[in-house]
Please model this.
Amino acid sequence: MKIILLKDVSKLGRKYETKTVSDGHAINLLIPQGLAIAATADAVKRIENLKASAEGERKVQEELLVKNIEGLKDATVTIACKANEKGHLFAGLHKEALVVEIEKQTRLQIEPSFIQLEHPLKTTGEHMIEVKTGNKTARFKLVIEAK
Model:
């Protein structure tokens, strides 16, 4: 059965892609959970319009992000977290928490996916964090203090 994905589905495809899956998988799982719709001619036209508007919106978001990245360059963000006496955090600091603090302190909105972190931060002190979108990159200093 040919379907159009309405959301990203792991091991199957990305949003708005057309895929061929077994009838049972489509009817019993994907369509009832709102992850896909049947790929009829009408649905394909509707999805093409949605895809075009989403692409336009993404470009606007990317332009806004480039402006935000320029504002973030050479900034310092300070976060206070619970830590032991050796400077190790009790909970790792994730991208999502960083985005919240960046917005509070600099009033800039950045998507978590653009922050380049290999793993959550787990120590106090100064860290250089890289934010990257397309060909634009900015670095800012993150200071983690113990509470």
Residues 84 and 90 are 7 Å apart (CA to CA).
